[in-house]
Specification:
2 helices; mainly alpha; elongated
């Protein structure tokens, strides 16, 4: 399970890097705020996965 959570956290981090990269390319009128919302959601996924990882490591 630890490997699964660690891999999932890595994938979420990669997603954030991707969205941060395109964020500056998206004009405000075309939904830059949506990209920001996606980034925030991905960060929430990392938080939830990290909590689960800590729970199983105890």
């Amino acid at each position: 399970m630890k490997d699964i959570y660690t891999t999932a956290i890595g994938a979420e981090k990669d997603s954030i890097v991707f969205y941060l990269g395109i964020r500056d390319l998206v004009p405000e009128k075309y939904g830059k705020n949506r990209v920001d919302a996606i980034i925030k959601e991905e960060m929430g996924h990392i938080e939830a996965l990290s909590r689960q990882l800590l729970r199983i490591e105890r």
